[in-house]
Structures are given as structure tokens and as C-alpha cells.
């Protein structure tokens, strides 16, 4: 079980680092938005590139932030029945939901979004707006985000199995296994 927990820790560390980048993107997107608005009103100048940059930062924030949010157990969950379950029941429900729903759905969506990215990459897709940005890099964020979320799902499955076998306990706040 220790090698699997090491893999889980590596995935957690990756998504934690990505989460820090996402946190910075929130601030950066606010600054770009404010600067763009001030320049537009003060100098009557605007750029589609700055607007698209905000959209790109938001897309990265959402797609990559999902795995970070899942890792920290801050995702949306319908807890009507979940709270009535014992700790073991909650672990089993998390395990089943992640293993049979989250991971397959994420992998399917990554697979289906890959051609969307590849088509944009092959033609070197650019924005149709004057001064706009290239589009294919942001389209890569879609499959990459789903793969990161699936990887975090694998980490959560490992932690739940380890907890069910008594190797670790799960810290309810941050989903960190403690030994």
C-alpha cells in the first residue's frame, strides 16, 4: 500500500502546485480586467487580446482548479444521505462514486475533447477578433483539465482504500491521509 500512497502523494502535490497557480490567476485576471477597463475609459483604447486573456485565465482557473478543489474536499456534494452514513459508509460511497462515475466521465471527456484541441492545433487556429490570441493552447486546457481531475480521482481512490484497510485516516478538512 505504501507505493500507492506515494503515487497518491505525488498526484496531490502536483494538484496542490497547480492550485497555487490558479489562485494567482484569480488575482491576475482581476488586475488585467481592472487595467483594461481603466485604459478603455481613460484613453479610449481597448484590445481584444486583453479581453481574451481574461477568458483564457478564467478557463484555466476553472479546468485546472477542479482537481485542486476536489483534492481539498471543497467540491459540491449532495450531503442529504452522505451525512447519515457512518465514516466507513462515507468512504465506500466516495470510493464507488469516484471509481465508477468521476474517473470514467473525466477520461471520456478528455478523450472526446482531444480532437477539438487537435483540430485547432493542426490549423493553427487564431481568434477571429482583431488583435485576438491564438486559440489552440487554450483548447488544450480542456482535455488536460479532465486528465488532472481523473488523476486526482485516482489519488482519492487510493486514499479511500488505504483508509478502509486501516493504513491511514482521512483528515476531513483537507483529505490528507494521516498515519
Automatic annotation (TrEMBL):
Membrane topology note: Multi-pass membrane protein
Ranges annotated as spanning the membrane: 20-41, 53-70, 91-114, 134-151
GO molecular function: transmembrane transporter activity
Pfam family, one: DctQ
Main location: membrane
The Tripartite ATP-independent periplasmic transporters DctQ component domain, residue ranges: 30-161
Swiss-Prot/TrEMBL keywords: Cell inner membrane, Cell membrane, Membrane, Transmembrane, Transmembrane helix, Transport
Entry's family note: Belongs to the TRAP transporter small permease family.
Function statement: Part of the tripartite ATP-independent periplasmic (TRAP) transport system.
Annotated PANTHER family: 2,3-DIKETO-L-GULONATE TRAP TRANSPORTER SMALL PERMEASE PROTEIN YIAM, SLL1102 PROTEIN
Protein name per UniProt: TRAP transporter small permease protein
Organism: Bradyrhizobium huanghuaihaiense
Amino acid at each position: 500500500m505504501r507505493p500507492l500512497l506515494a503515487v497518491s502523494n505525488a498526484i496531490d502535490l502536483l494538484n496542490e502546485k497547480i492550485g497555487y497557480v490558479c489562485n494567482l490567476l484569480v488575482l491576475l485576471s482581476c488586475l488585467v480586467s481592472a487595467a483594461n477597463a481603466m485604459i478603455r475609459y481613460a484613453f479610449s483604447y481597448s484590445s481584444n487580446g486583453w479581453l481574451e486573456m481574461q477568458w483564457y485565465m478564467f478557463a484555466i482557473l476553472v479546468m485546472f482548479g477542479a482537481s485542486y478543489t476536489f483534492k481539498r474536499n471543497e467540491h459540491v456534494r449532495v450531503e442529504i444521505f452522505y451525512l447519515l452514513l457512518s465514516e466507513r459508509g462515507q468512504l465506500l460511497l466516495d470510493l464507488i462514486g469516484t471509481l465508477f462515475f468521476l474517473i470514467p466521465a473525466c477520461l471520456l471527456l478528455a478523450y472526446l475533447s482531444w480532437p477539438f484541441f487537435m483540430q485547432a492545433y493542426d490549423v493553427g487556429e487564431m481568434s477571429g477578433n482583431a488583435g485576438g490570441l491564438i486559440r489552440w493552447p487554450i483548447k488544450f486546457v480542456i482535455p488536460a483539465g479532465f486528465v488532472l481531475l481523473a488523476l486526482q480521482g485516482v489519488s482519492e481512490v487510493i486514499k479511500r482504500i488505504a483508509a478502509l484497510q486501516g493504513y491511514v485516516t482521512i483528515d476531513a478538512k483537507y483529505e490528507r491521509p494521516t498515519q
